Amino acid sequence: MRTLGSTILPGLGMLGTRLHRLGLLLLSLILVSAVVVGLIVLRNPLITAGSALQSGWMRVIAVSLIVIAAVWVLVIIGTYLISRPRRLTSGQRTAGGVVVGLLTFVVSAPLSVASSYSFETAKLSSNVFGSEVKSQSQTRPTLEKKDPWAGMERVNILLAGGDSGQGREAELGNRTDTMMMASIDPKTGATLIVQLPRNMQNPIFAPNSPLASVFPYGFTDGSDSFLSSVWEDAPAMYPDLFQETDYPGADALKWAFEGVTGQKVDYFVMVNIDGLVNLIDAMGGVTVNVNFPIAMGGSTSDGNCGEIGWIPEWPDRHLDGEEAMWYARSRCNSPGGDFGRMQRQSCLINAVIDQADPGTMLTRYEDIAQAAGDMISTDIPQEHLSAIVDLAGRVQREGIVNRISFVHGVNGYDSSYPDFDQIKADIASAIAETQEQAEAKDAPQPVNPEPAAPEASASTAEPDAVDQAEPEVAGPGEAENITDACAYYHQEPEGDWYIPESVPRYTPPASQPAQTNR
User: CB neighbours (10 Å) of residue 48?
Assistant: First the structure.
């Protein structure tokens, strides 16, 4: 029983033996440590977690867990040796040894796994998040430790998707096919996702940026003036303007987003599409709404879509990594072409974030950490992680995530001749709308609400009326809730591409009238 006591709590089994003082010392250390750690965590759990994610702290935690495991094992063995009867038969010694071995395994195994995870996290943190001292950026903010977001009305993070698949440039992020900005209220966590199309022409740069003077009429490299080319081409054309940064492409694109949106961009996160495939596979897949049969791969030998296959139209369709990649990448029969693809990309990212199951994260942690390390590039330094994790927690708690997309031909937007003043006004209006929703959500509800109006009588109500209104497209400056935007509704595929009969067809139940293209 004493051995079991030390297994439950190191030193407990030593009380009342000749090692009584050692037992008291161990129990006192455990109590003091638990109180100190508990107070630190309870004060702000998310900031504590963010601080712990720094590689230096993770290595300290990893080594500490190994030391704790070793000491705990020694305490269990020591307790057994001082408390066992003096005279034991060989069978009793064998049985005792087996029991002690099992108890030490029960204690040491989880601590060893936790230590391994800590080392993996330290490695991931070092690979992805640089040091504020060792890495340079011309656009990254400097935060105060006491109140990181003091004086900042919005925290804006550029999210870019780089495609390094077969036939593409190998360098991470050479081609930014996907570009969006998460604009977050640091007080409430209410978020607006701003999506700009990759073929926006002649994007302007922030007025106070070095690129504004060399591109006074918007970006162009002589043959290409698309927003997606800024990352690679602007630093290549003017390398002298990027001498003080380790992120030339990102800084160039951040300045472009600032010029176009009128919002200061604080950080960037680049997601490599191939790495995203591995991450989704490591997570066990992702579930999204597929609103039309999506072609996978390029054209077939007869010029049709779907060289690799098809993702059937289906609500709550579970996709593996490759299917998810084609869900986000496919344009062949996509309604709206490039712009429909752009909207699916934000739905996929939202689904990955929402479906990061803690159990899966633990059981597949090493695979997920490896995939994340290969997938992400960012200028967020380790010193800012605690503030970023706390901010992410506010976003998750608030639950208000809206989206505004600029789609060619919709609401007067033209990719070839973008009206930047109108774009800025639309974004400002969408931010204000998102803020109003957050304030309404946090507003106290009346104690005695007005009674509901009486229902219409049978003689005045329309019999068997069913609301089959089609969802509306968000107007200029209007934010759309991303959950609603990514809901299932039937879309007609673009063009007259042949869809094989072998591709399953979804038929909605009679109680669920089909909605059509937005």
Answer: 17
